[in-house]
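Please, structure for the following, as tokens.
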Amino acid sequence: MFKPHSQEQLKALRVTAGERYTIEYRNKDYFNGEETVERGTGTAVVTEQGIFFNVEDPYGMEKLIMQARVIARG
């Protein structure tokens, strides 16, 4: 079962803008709407609204992920 980190948890992990992280995130398939949990590398984006991650999904498309679980830095 996928459980993303809260914004408070991401701040406590000291996620830094522009750094790359291995994350888990829920991915919704463009074609059939199926949801899967994916693991990939994302670049952190930090704004006043929160901490997000840019990732490349399984189809090679860039995606902004709003709910993620950080696995590792780098």
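The radius of gyration is 12 Å. The chain has a mean pLDDT of 94.
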